[in-house]
Design brief:
The chain is mainly alpha-helical. Helices cover 81% and strands 0% of the residues. It has one domain. The protein has seven helices and no strands.
Length: 154
């Protein structure tokens, strides 16, 4: 009871007025990281479409879709997404000194984990909605892939 009132007053006066601006500042790198995940998925699926349009090979298409499933675990391809979030390191340093925020690396790592999880969900959903083995008309495959991609991105 004796600590509650001073603690509430301290939060109301020294922290709460800054929360909106802090959140906006932190969301920049987080949003750009998730936008990069979206762009990477879009680019990879577009490459599958282009490859299929060149080869018209269903077996190669299946192979490409299988490779897409490994995208979340491909550190080289996911690296540009993760780098966007590394900007949080600088932003959180200021918060660390002002508000005693610790475990900055944990915040960045969790954000990157969520990015990987988002990519896992995207490729899994893509695979579930598009199964190359169920495609009877190879003329419509590229169109179907594009529709599935747009559905996943939605």
């Amino acid at each position: 009871a004796t600590v509650s009132e001073p603690a509430q007053k301290c939060c109301t006066e020294n922290i709460q007025p800054f929360l909106t601006s802090i959140l906006e500042e932190l969301m920049g790198p987080v949003s750009s990281g998730f936008t990069e995940v979206r762009s990477l998925f879009d680019k990879e699926v577009n490459e599958i479409i282009q490859d299929f349009q060149k080869t018209n090979d269903i077996m190669k298409l299946k192979e490409n879709v299988n490779q897409l499933m490994n995208l979340p675990f491909n550190s080289v391809k996911m690296e540009p997404c993760y780098l966007k979030v590394n900007l949080l390191q600088e932003l959180l340093q200021d918060l660390k000194s002002r508000f005693k925020v610790y475990h900055i690396d944990f915040v960045i790592q969790r954000t990157q984990n969520f990015m990987q999880e988002l990519m896992e969900n995207a490729v899994y959903t893509f695979e579930q909605l598009f199964s190359p083995s169920h495609q009877a008309d190879s003329a419509k495959v590229a169109t179907t892939i594009e529709k599935v991609k747009l559905r996943v991105l939605k």
